[in-house]
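seq as requested:
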Amino acid sequence: MKTPPLSLLHRIGASDVASVSGARFELRSPTDGSLVGEVARGAAVDVDRAVASARAAFAAWSTTPAPVRGEVMFRAAALLEARKDAIAEVMAREMGKRVEEARGDIQEAIDTAFYAGSEGRRLFGHTVPSELSEKMGFTLRRPIGVVGVITAWNFPVAVPSWKILPALVCGNTIVWKPAEEAPASGAMFAQALWDAGLPPGALNIVHGFGDEVGAALVAHPDTRVLAFTGSTPVGRSIAEIGGRMLKRVSLEMGGKNPVIVMPDADLGLVVDGVLWGAFGTAGQRCTATSRLITVGDAHDRLLDELVKRAKALRLGDPLDAATEVGPLVSEAQRQRVHGFVERAVAAGTPLRCGGAFPTEAALQGGWFYPPTIFDEVKRGSELAMSEVFGPVLAVIRAASFDEAIEVANEVPFGLSSSIYTRDVNVAMRAVHRLESGITYVNAPTSGAEAHFPFGGVKDTGNGHREGGWAPYEFFTETKTVYFDYSGTLQRAQIDNREG
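struct tokens:
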């Protein structure tokens, strides 16, 4: 039975509302082009309404005891667990993620919700001895205000959960712009929070496009914090605007993630890991394995098997359990990926598999692209340096461990990295020398656990981390309290001691 199209409105306060202009846009499936739904198309005036709602809700939500805020997260986790299959189906339909991977996306949000709930009882401050008698000092963590959240389409539930849940537990209120390519599964995630008892206005959603909704949210004078996942150029712009307006800004951006394979590595394990890291979610992950750096003779012993296995991966409907690689999110994304491939071929880079639109009749209605592997990729070339965000793997030779580290570090990004080796000494040297926020040993570059910090260095981020304990620092201000019970004027050293 064909699923009827969805109709998505903004959520402002307690109400689902249309755009002031009445504008809407279509949401179409990347699998077959069918209509998934129609979505309200927001603008600055809709952002104004949402921010006003969040401001109005802040006083009550910020003074709700943090453990009580945490209880909402626990209830939301239970609802997400019960609704996992329904949300996963919508995610697969709207942005093409295989339903098995979509369930994992939602499980990450469930795990994050449980973690966030427990942090409601762990928003620790410090108690520190005073230098003066009959005086004490301690710190508190206080909420900041309205948080503007802008997220990408490739993890439409997991990534928003990393921002939204900690921000809420910390007592902030939120206006969220989900990605226009995947708003429906995000709305179902938010519905779990509302159904769990999140009060009206604490989380507001405005759907739409970056230049219409995202830009208004970033520049709004009443958003105190900005949390963004997306491209590096957009992140730079957000950082510039946020800096001028003295906003707190967290950016999670691009990656060009390397796997280094040493000659002593378990090559069967390498093949399994690289296939998943490079072609999971059709390569549409910021942590995707996009470079395979082989050291010495590992290249010749590895590559034929990797190519063979990549060619055998099954493209198809993400709702089909037999599918191993789903479609890219849009035709524009497919053309972008193919552009990288065409330019690499024109430059004479050896193409080992993939690199052409599929010809099977069953795949003609969607934006499918096969797993693609280039060999002998030259250092400094576009394919070696630029993020493709698709199922394209660049294989680069290195003569030694030191050269492999140089190759890994010479890109502008620094999100995730990996090394396969049986030598613990080599592994630890790589951990210390790889310029990335995350390093795996004997595992692919993709994947995250909810209780560990996630983020990168260089052009991947601006120093903040999501996941684990890190966001609870970002979404709060530290307030220092001095309590003098001496009954006399006591001056601290800044006013009391000579230099």
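The CA atoms of residues 301 and 443 lie 19 Å apart.
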